[in-house]
Design brief:
Number of domains of chain B: 2
Strand content of chain A: 25-35%
Number of helices of chain A: 10
InterPro entries (chain B): Tscrpt_reg_HTH_GntR, WH-like_DNA-bd_sf, WH_DNA-bd_sf
Strand order of the largest sheet of chain A: 6-7-8-3-9-10
Shape of chain B: elongated
Shape of chain A: globular
CATH superfamily of the largest domain in chain B: Winged helix-like DNA-binding domain superfamily/Winged helix DNA-binding domain
Strand order of the largest sheet of chain B: 1-2
Number of strands of chain A: 14
CATH topology of the largest domain in chain B: Arc Repressor Mutant, subunit A
Number of domains of chain A: 2
Radius of gyration of chain A: 22 Å
Protein name (chain B): DNA-binding transcriptional regulator YhcF, GntR family
Radius of gyration of chain B: 18 Å
Oligomer: heterodimer
Keywords (chain B): DNA-binding, Transcription, Transcription regulation
Largest sheet of chain B: 2 strands, antiparallel
Number of strands of chain B: 2
GO molecular function, one term (chain B): DNA-binding transcription factor activity
Organism (chain B): Pediococcus ethanolidurans
CATH architecture of the largest domain in chain B: Orthogonal Bundle
């Protein structure tokens, strides 16, 4: 049971937000959906969960379109920045309402999470701070019996301790009860090792659709004296460059030409996901 | 355990190396359990599939084994295997580097041998 997104196109007025986005989301994996502000991440998530409609393209689960298909949409949950809850309602009532809507809710786990995050379920939604609103929405997302959980900026307003706790709980519930999580966030460093596969969205198109390990295995930083570095990296896919006097670092994405000898003065090292993302999306290179 | 998240070495290799180091230093004794995939995943915010990939390297190298329903255990003889593996890699991993750096520093072979002898005498001080 996989979600297949094919050739999704979305325009708001004359502005093209998504331009032929296709990707497949498999069961029981953790994905990262990365992109700069305005890349179209939230729009894509809203289309996948049928909150807004695409101009073109389809979202299907096992070949069946999810559009207005309540049963299939019941397997998907999107936690987003939008607050859909009435301010005067108590959290415990909102838990109950979610249970009715989705036909289930892990109350034991919700209780555990409320205690871990020190959230009193007797409070009303309107009484919560930004951080605690996020926590409340996360609890709902983790306790619903859905197969696909989409988290759009799930750590908005969370302090370092709460973020740490959230990552632990996410991996814990994922291990004990595997399902798919798609995390869209700007905090790339913090989730880099939790995600197995990454989608990078840039200007409404998919720039990268790859396993994190594989993606990083093709990312290199070549440092050394400027001329030597340029000579060695000539013809390679250079996505960024840094220099300090005559010391130069070229960021390369793609295979190195292994036949060539590496000059003594040149050093080859690796980069992390965040660095790679920054260089890929800063308009400096051709991407791939 | 301490992981380097800067991207210099893939995380699954680090998982394998760290557990191997744990076995070598005796932190994980033979016939005892190593931390579970879930535990490591949770503690270090690493995807369970990545931890498993690292664990599988150790299974292939016959350092750990899966005991059905119980988890991963250090195999008997694992310490000896690691010792032999590291001994045979010692020339590639260390000696070549030392010699190359000695050459950079214009130290002669005789001087290098003297330094090594001094290292043995002072026990590394």
């Amino acid at each position: 049971m996989e979600i297949k997104i094919s050739e999704i196109t979305k325009k708001f007025g004359k502005k093209q937000i998504l331009n032929g986005v296709s990707l497949t989301i498999e069961p029981n994996r953790i994905y990262g959906l990365l992109g700069r502000n305005g890349a179209g991440k939230s729009t894509l998530l809203n289309i996948i969960t049928d909150r807004i409609f695409a101009n073109d393209g389809t979202v299907t689960i096992d070949g069946v379109s999810t559009h207005e298909h309540d049963e299939l949409l019941g397997k998907i949950y999107l936690m987003s920045e939008v607050n859909l809850y009435q301010k005067r309602v108590r959290l415990q009532e909102l838990f109950k309402a979610s249970k009715i809507m989705y036909g289930g809710f892990d109350e034991t786990y919700a209780k555990h999470l409320c205690e871990a995050f020190e959230l009193n379920p007797k409070l009303r939604f309107g009484q919560l701070s930004t951080g605690y609103r996020t926590i409340f929405k996360l609890i709902i997302a983790l306790c619903l019996p859905v197969d696909y959980v989409f988290l759009d900026e799930p750590i908005l307003g969370l302090d370092a301790n709460h973020r740490e706790l959230f990552y632990k709980e996410l991996l814990d519930t994922y291990s004990s009860h595997p399902r798919t999580f798609v995390i869209s966030t700007h905090m790339i460093e913090e989730i880099a090792n939790m995600i197995e596969h990454v989608f990078v969205l840039e200007n409404g198109k998919i720039l990268v659709d790859d396993d994190v390990d594989h993606m990083l295995s093709q990312a290199y930083v070549i440092t050394g004296p400027g001329e030597t570095v340029d000579q060695y990296t000539e013809g390679l896919n250079i996505i960024g460059t840094e220099s300090l006097g005559n010391l130069k670092g070229n960021y390369v994405f793609g295979s190195l030409n292994d036949d060539r000898e590496i000059p003594d003065t040149v050093q080859i090292s690796r980069m992390d996901l965040q660095k790679l993302f920054i260089h890929l999306t800063s308009g400096g290179g051709t991407g791939k | 355990m301490q992981f380097d998240f800067s991207g210099q070495e893939p995380i699954y290799l680090q998982v394998a190396n760290q557990i191997e180091e744990g076995i070598f230093t005796g932190a994980f004794k033979e016939e005892t359990q190593v931390p579970s995939t879930t535990e490591m995943s949770r503690e270090f915010h690493i995807n369970p599939a990545t931890v498993l990939k690292g664990m599988n390297i150790l299974v292939t190298e016959k350092l750990v084994e899966k005991r059905r329903g119980l988890g991963m255990f250090v195999k008997k003889g694992a310490y000896q295997l690691i010792l032999e593996k590291r001994q045979s890699a010692f020339f590639e991993d260390y000696v070549k580097k030392i010699v190359s750096e000695a050459k950079n520093l214009k130290l002669s072979e005789v001087e290098l041998i003297k330094l090594i002898q001094r290292g043995f005498k002072t026990n590394g001080d």
